[in-house]
Each structure stands twice: as structure tokens, then as C-alpha cells.
Amino acid sequence: MALTxxxxxxxxxxxxxxxxxxxEFRRDLKRFASFxxxxxxxxxxxxxxxxxxxxxxxxxxxxxxxxxxxxIGQLLVxxxxxxxxxxxxxxxxxxxxxxxxANPALGWLLGWVSFTFLAVVVVSVDYAIAQTVLxxxxxxxxxxxxxxxxxxxxxxxxALLIIFSTYWATRINNAAVGTEVIGVVGLTVLLLIIGAIxxxxxxxxxxxxxxxxPDGYFSLGTLTxxxxxxxxxxxxxxxxxxFEAAANLAEETENPHxxxxxxxxxxxxxxxxxxMAFLVALNLASGDLTTLSASSTPVxxxxxxxxxxxxxxxxxxxxxxxIFACGLVAFISATxxxxxxxxxxxxxxxxxxxxxDKRTATPVAATILCGVLMEVILGLFGLQTNVLTNxxxxxxxxxxxxYLATVILFICTKHRLPAARNFSxxxxxxxxxxxxxxxxxxxxxxxxxxxxxxxWAYSLGMFVIGLIYFVFMLIKRPQVLKAPPNEIVP
Length: 490
Known about the structure:
By secondary structure, the protein is an all-alpha fold. Helix content is 68%, strand content 0%. α6 (104-138) packs across α17 (364-382) and α8 runs parallel beside α12 (256-284).
């Protein structure tokens, strides 16, 4: 990996005009804010509070050792995305890249899948607050009804923040980087120190399979199932996603050719290091594995059991803020994708959803649409059993599909790519790309397990809805899908 010569580009507005667009957002995001977008979307606290309990059931404490492999794999993917973002820093990321490098029809399909992912991931993140943190913090029993109600209120609050102020949404997101690091690093250090002082650490848990049978533990599985260790890869696969949100806000970022690529790969790397340390601390302080595996709030139980209720609750409040910010930045990314596709007249109701409010500088209608859809998705998943597991499984499957399609796109169209700007992989470009492809094929193979039926059903259902509109465009407005995205002046 290497930085190219720091070319002095044309102004941000002129750079956007070269691809046929006018500047409609204020470029308020600088280096730290762009990094914060990717880091907050990844959100170690969100991922681990959501999935650690599931991993205890699927692969036991030993399952955490899939984490470093996932981090390396996703780091490779983020470097490929960084190479694309340095060349084409446009809102809509994979949708724009595929439309311009391959063809607009493929770009539209990839954009719709991205929209499908962003809609469900916000619900999964916000549901994690309602199920895995709030019951322990406020000492009440979590039920399907109160979890649904709390999640619905969180989604509504995030929508209001996005509608009325990108500035304050960004401020919350920037602050969340601090709370994420302080919260996770603080929890890690305190769990180790207090746990050691109180004699509550269990080194043998680092490599224990817990309630999971060791027989066939490392099996690759069959055509419709995977072994316990392979299943545990979802721990990192759910968490280390969303770094591309920095690319989706490229039109609101200063010098995006340089800042956005750095934001993506550095967010993955820092999240991977801090997350691994936290997982080791959780395993060491895990206590009774049978009781913990049956709990809906295992991480919160470990925190309060080791640190006591007062210190534990303070840190849980910090964690809630970080998870809320994760959902917020994912929500923002969804609204920008809807806006970007509507700007190109390629989203249902595009005349309404491409509008940017002059007073708030936010796409109000697109935000309301996303919020309503998220509430519908919450209602659909809320009627099922294993709500959180189904939500985070769908939120892991869809980005894997998007990442694989984007990496294949990069390989197939490399000869047509614009020149790199401020970031280049140099001689490492092909090795990084091929290894990223291998990793993504392996990751997607995990979803052959029959337990992911609900995740596939949601993904396919949303894809069919999109396909109906796609066919409508082919019949009624074929010209829209014949040329690369470009601003159509009404």
C-alpha cells in the first residue's frame, strides 16, 4: 500500500462537475469526521454486544479466534474499496462505480441491494440496544413487545436528527468515536484488572468450546450446514462492515480522493485491534458459561458481574451512545444512497426523494422514506423468533454480496479505471484483490447453512420488489438505464 504524490486537485465542486453533477451538499466532513463515519458504522461495541451471545451458543468462547481472520479479510476488501474511492469519490459508492465501469443496469441492481442492506442493518443495530443493553441497565425483563417499542422509538429519534441537522448528527458521530474507544478500551482494561484482583478470570475459557460439543468442531460441514467454528465467523463478519459509509458521504467530504480511502482502511484496522482485545477480556471474565450462553444480555452480564452495578452501568451508558451513533451513521448512509439514485431518476418516486432541503441541507423526503421502511422491517422481523439473530444474519449476508460484486467489478474493469488520486496499492494491487476475492467467497459459503433461511427470504423478497421496478424502467423508461448516471436537469 502506498500513497501517491499528493496531487493538488481541482476544487471539490469542479471534481464533481467532471462526472456531470452539481454540488448540493456542504462539504463539512474533514479527515477525522470521515474516519468517524466508517469507524462508527463498524462499531465494535454494537457488533460484540449483538453477536457474542450467539457465538457462545454456536461455537463457544473458542469462536472468538475467527475474529483476526475476518479482520484481515475485510481489511483487504476495504483496500479495494479505497482504490475505487480514490478514483471516483461519489455518493452512492458501488452503485456509481458499477454504473460507470460496467453498465447502468448492473449498477442499479447493486445499488438496490445496498439499499436493502442499509435498511435492515439500522434495524439490527437499534434492536441490539433494546435487547442486549437496556434490559440489564434498567433491570427489566426483555420481551418482544418492549424490544419492538424501544427500537421503533430509537429509529424515529435518529430520523429526526438526520432531518433537522447533518451538523448535529455529525457531532454525535464524532463524539461516538471517543465513546467507542473509551468504552471498549475502558471495559477491556477494567475487566482484566478488576477481574484479576477479584480472582474472577478464567484463562481456560480462552480456548473452551463451552456448551458446544468438541466433536466435529472444525468441520467444514455439508451442503446445507457448517461446523461450529465456521459458524463463528459471523462474529466478525457482522461487525467489520460499513467502512464504505465514508465513500457514500464523499460529496460531503473535503479532498475526498485522499481522505475517504484512508478513512475506510484505517477504520477497519483500528476496529480489528481494539475488538480482539475486548473479546479476550470477555472470555477471561466470562464466569459460568452455561448461564451466560442462556442469557439475552451476556456482555452486559459480564460487565456488571465483574465491575459492579455502578461502574458497569456507567460504561453501559457509554456503550448505548456508541451503538446509537452506529445506527445513526448507517441511517445517514441509507438516505444518501436513496438521494443519489433519485438524483439519477433511478429510484421509485425520484422527483420527491432527490430534493435537498435548502434550510437544513438534508434530503428530508429520503430520510422519511428510509425511516418508514425501517419500521416496516422491524415489524416483519419482530413477529419471528430469534429476532436479533435473524436481523444480524441478514445484515451480514447482504454486505458480503455487495463486497463480492464490487471486487469482481474491480477485477473486470481495472483497465478502464480512472487514474488513482492520492492513494494507490501499487505492486500489491493484484495480490490484495485476489485475496479479497477468496475471502469473500469463503464468507458467503457460510450462508449455505439452513439456519439462514430467514436472511435469504428477506434478501430475496427485497430483491424481487426492486426487480419489479427494474422491469418497469426497462419497459417504460429504457433510456434511464442506457447511459451512466448523470444529473438530469428538470
